[in-house]
Amino acid sequence: MVLGLVAGGCRNEESQSPLVASVYNHELRESDLRGLVAEGISPEDSASIIDNYVDQWVRQTVLLCKAEKNVTDNFDQQLGEYRNRLLIYAYEQQILNQLMDTTVTDAQIDEYYSQHQDQFRLRNSIVKAVYTIAPKRFSANQKIKQLITKRIFVDEDIVTLEELASRYDLKGYYDGDTWIPFYTLQNVVPITTYNETLFLRQNRSIVLSDDSLTYYVRILDYKVSDEASPEELEHDNIRAIILNRRKLDILNKMQADLMSEAESGGHVKRG
User: Fold this and answer.
1) Cα(first)–Cα(last) distance of the chain, in Å?
2) Which tens digit of pLDDT belongs to each residue from 196-246?
3) Is the dihedral of CA 254, 260, 262, 265 positive or negative?
4) Single pTM value for the model
5) Which of 56, 83, 109, 241 has its CA 20 to 30 A from that of 9?
6) Quick one: angle between helices 155-168 and 141-148, nearest 10?
7) Residue 139 Rama label (left phi>0; alpha psi -120 to 50; beta)
8) Helix crossing, 76-99 with 231-264: angle to 10°?
9) Average pLDDT for residues 34-56, to the nearest whole number?
10) How many whole angstroms separate alpha carbon 122 and alpha carbon 223?
11) How far apart are CA 100 and CA 250, in angstroms?
């Protein structure tokens, strides 16, 4: 039985392992299932895992046998090339694990960003903004409007707006440190403009109303499309770029060293 695998010990001779299933001339034995079930799994879950695996093996093997009989293409070359790629990849990973430094400091990210800003261009306008949405007839509307339209808007004003929203159960957004796409703001607040750049340059505070609601928006900062994307938005991207460059440098040097070693030893001959 398949369940015997869970409690049974290892056998010295693989050929003596009990047969679990067979399809034509293919056999699946208990020894083939070792390690399939992790320790601590309940007997019921173990049985389910093993039965699912056996069922999948049978189905796949039936299909394989049918394919072997009916497909005349020879895949030896492709299989050889695939094996070679796997071997090279595994060796490269060993080298990278041994030699690659995966630490990227903020200073290194700052330096890369300052030297390559042209690589990071915005496709869409982005803003840092806070907003509150209140009923059109609402007792605190004047207070909210005064805060939103202040000439000098400070962090304490955001805290006050958030407290008002919490007190009166108003919808709003108060993370003034995070860049968001301008179109995301427009999905919530009915801002319509045919010139985003001009609109953002001319509007720091926005008050709009529809039939039932009033929208209060404060634009804290903005960048329009085709400007350099802020460094904080590109932090993870730059880190990946730096690591990829290190990876390529290590692999290129490894290949050059191996070629030099093989050629100097007379192991490379060209016709």
Assistant:
1) 60
2) 999 999 999 999 999 999 999 999 999 999 999 999 999 999 999 999 999
3) negative
4) 0.74
5) 56
6) 160
7) alpha
8) 110
9) 91
10) 8
11) 7
Please give the torsion angle defined by the CA atoms of residues 37, 43, 49 and 50, in that order, rounded to the nearest 10 degrees.
80
Joined tokens for residue 91: 């060796």
